[in-house]
Amino acid sequence: MLLKTPFKRRYIPDKSDRTGSPKFRLFFMTLSIMALCITGNSNASELYIGTATVEITPKLPVALTGQFHLRIAHTAETPLTANIVVLESRDGEHSLDAVIMVSCDLLYISNKMLEMVRGSIKKKIPGLDVNKIFLNATHTQTAPVLENDSNSDFSFKYEIPKDWVLQVEDYIDFFVQEVSGAIVLPINLMS
């Protein structure tokens, strides 16, 4: 769950003080360089931006990660979402390059999950460079368990009941299906 804090405005007495400051010049220069890097040759290409959001809340009950003991969620207070941003540079109708960023309400993103999403997208959009799909996690401590392999160096085994709790593999399959389906939406709309 994300906590919202009120935005505090800071009084800036004079515009000339802002534009002449070294911090503002550094910010403006960084922003300009980023804009040039994204768009490349601005005379020959345009930048297209597409977005999508998909709910990735699992079926309940589900085992939660983020603690050293097993927790089972029977209710969801707020939904888990994956938010997608697609940036594509084009020269007319010709796509020059594209990058896809996905922010997920999970504790982390495993390499296995990333590769499964990339593989699914490769089947749906064969010409897309799937190495330019990036997934990140918001690092919520109340997300489903994503790995339950006692042989892994990076996890420990939760004793998840087999008969009445959603299993890790089932959630990962659901996640891959939902996220890859949502990635395709903005790409198709921009076409």
How does this model look, in words?
The radius of gyration is 21 Å and the shape is elongated. α3 (111-124) crosses α4 (168-190). It folds into two domains: 15-42; 45-190, no CATH class. It has helices at 15-19, 22-39, 111-124, 168-190, and strands at residues 46-55, 62-64, 71-73, 81-91, 94-104, 133-137. Mean pLDDT is 80; it is low at 1-21. The protein has 191 residues and is α+β, with helices and mostly antiparallel strands. The chain starts with 14 loop residues before the first helix and ends with a helix. A hairpin with a 2-residue loop joins β4 (81-91) and β5. The longest helix is centred in the last third of the chain and has 23 residues, at 168-190. Strands 1-4-5-6 form a four-stranded mixed beta sheet, with helices on one face. Strands 2-3 form a two-stranded antiparallel sheet.
Summarize the structure.
This protein is an alpha+beta fold and 191 residues long.
Question: Helical proportion?
Answer: 25-40%
Average pLDDT confidence is 80
Q: Strand content of the residues, in percent?
A: 15-25%
Low-confidence residue ranges: 1-21
Shape assignment: elongated
Element-level helix/strand string: HHEEEEEHEH
Strand order of the largest sheet: 1-4-5-6
DSSP E strands, number:
6
Q: What does the secondary structure layout of this molecule look like, with pairings?
A:
Blueprint: H1 15-19, H2 22-39, E1 46-55, E2 62-64, E3 71-73, E4 81-91, E5 94-104, H3 111-124, E6 133-137, H4 168-190
Parallel strand pairs: 5-6
Antiparallel strand pairs: 1-4, 2-3, 4-5
